[in-house]
């Protein structure tokens, strides 16, 4: 890999946590590209080597590479001398406002606090009848992996719908406001079908925990889901400079 020191390479390609491996890989590579640790035009190690270095499955790596390619950070070259390369120029997207950059982690923290509470209380209170519509929503989301705007609408509906199962009007309002605050941030995340499928798998794990009344598992799954979003934002949010 050209242009990166050994120490930098070790930092970029150190093993990631298994619970959020896809998201942390996007974070690690995207941040390294923005910081110049992976210079424009540099070639990434081969997939097998990357998987070994990061301690992840090839399917997980390919999800992350797909997201970074869709966002314009990487591109693939086929044939002799091919491989996965850092883009010569970062994607030409509008930079986020200084306010958005200053506040995005606070927005994520707020959402985490609200939705952690929702997940725990839903696990304690939600009836089977109240959860049935959410099962239907997840099935619909599986059919929208190629249509992100439609997927996002139902994704919001799922999270607010989970708040509704608590029977708390204040929690529904808080969940709605948190989703609204995330709207501008979500714009900066790549959404290939593989990423949306993984997100919906996390939804299913969360809903299963809630249906079983397992508040600890529900809290763990929603935390992993939302921390994953934060990792992807850290990797893909453009530098405001």
UniProtKB/TrEMBL annotation:
- Which GO MF terms does the UniProt record name? DNA binding; DNA-binding transcription factor activity
For this protein, the record's Pfam families field holds:
FCD, GntR
SMART domains hit by this protein: FCD (SM00895), HTH_GNTR (SM00345)
Please provide the record's keywords in A-Z order: DNA-binding, Transcription, Transcription regulation
**Listed PROSITE patterns:** HTH_GNTR
In this chain the HTH gntR-type domain maps to: 19-89
Provide the protein name. Answer: L-lactate dehydrogenase operon regulatory protein
Q: Name the gene for this chain.
A: lldR_2
């Amino acid at each position: 890999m050209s242009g990166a020191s050994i120490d930098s390479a070790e930092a970029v390609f150190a093993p990631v946590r298994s619970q959020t491996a896809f998201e942390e890989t996007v974070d690690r590579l995207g941040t390294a590209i923005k910081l110049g640790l992976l210079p424009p035009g540099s070639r990434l190690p081969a997939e097998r080597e990357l998987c070994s270095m990061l301690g992840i499955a090839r399917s997980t790596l390919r999800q992350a590479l797909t997201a970074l390619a869709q966002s314009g950070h990487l591109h693939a070259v086929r044939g002799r001398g091919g491989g996965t390369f850092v883009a010569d120029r970062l994607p030409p997207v509008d930079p986020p406002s200084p306010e958005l950059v200053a506040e995005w982690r606070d927005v994520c923290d707020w959402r985490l606090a609200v939705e952690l509470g929702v997940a725990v209380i839903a696990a304690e209170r939600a009836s089977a009848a109240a959860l049935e519509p959410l099962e239907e929503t997840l099935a619909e989301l599986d059919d929208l992996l190629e249509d992100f705007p439609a997927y996002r609408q139902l994704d919001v509906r799922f999270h607010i719908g989970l708040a509704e199962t608590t029977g708390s009007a204040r929690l529904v309002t808080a969940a709605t406001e948190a989703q609204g605050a995330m709207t501008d941030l979500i714009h900066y995340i790549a959404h290939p079908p593989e990423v949306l499928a993984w997100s919906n798998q996390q939804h299913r794990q969360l809903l299963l925990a809630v249906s079983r009344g397992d508040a600890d598992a529900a809290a763990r799954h929603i935390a992993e889901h939302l921390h994953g979003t934060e990792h992807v934002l850290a990797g893909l949010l453009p530098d405001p400079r």
